[in-house]
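Suppose a colleague, Dr. K., hands you the sequence of a protein chain of 248 amino acids and asks what its three-dimensional shape might be. Before reaching for any lab equipment, you can write down a predicted structure in token form. Begin with the sequence itself:
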Amino acid sequence: MSLQQFFEKNPRVAIAFSGGVDSSYLLYSAKAAGCVVHAYYLKSEFQPEFEHEDAVSVASFIGVPLTVVDFSVLGVPSVTENSADRCYFCKTQILEKLWELVRVDGFTVLCDGTNADDDEGDRPGMRALREQGVISPLRECGLTKSEIRELSKQAGLSTFDKPAYACLATRIPTGTAITGKFLEMVERAESALFEMGFSDFRVRLIPPATANIQMPTEQWDEAAARRDEIHEALQPDFKNVLLDLATR
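The predicted structure, expressed as tokens, is then:
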């Protein structure tokens, strides 16, 4: 089945939209197929502000209405306890909230941007997608991440080369309770590194106040050369700043 065929069968769709590579191409494809389509972006403490800004920009470029939904995941104990199933609990809460809104808006089909490369065994959130009746057209049509990037480039989408970005909660080690303070520490640190020109990295928290920076090996030399600058930028939140030599 092609995306065109999917949208011919489903001419009215709501899309759980992140502003990333996959959901952006899905949104574009729905619009191009002539669907009645509406994007829904759930804004929580787990998303940095630049993701929200990207979502607004891309939806505007495609010409699709966007609803931004404010939702505090820090008010959900099963999420903030940060067990191995945190992603499942979080995704379930998010999708239940989205379904409430899309049904009020007259939609009966809710889609997300999961693609054919996403390993179901490694993504507990995919269990929530199944249980909540969310459809993943890119996955059903067999589209891989590399194919989606190329198709996005052809479509003129700015997201075609956007790096993958997992939510801020993934920076907190499993078993450590997630707090607003921890999330803000990580977001400030990653924002500072972005502003310095680093890319495709993660700042992982080692409680209570150590930053473990994971970045591609080709950026290590620059990080070492700018160690004082990096330490100064992160020092207000972190007593120790480490470069993870185990990453590739």
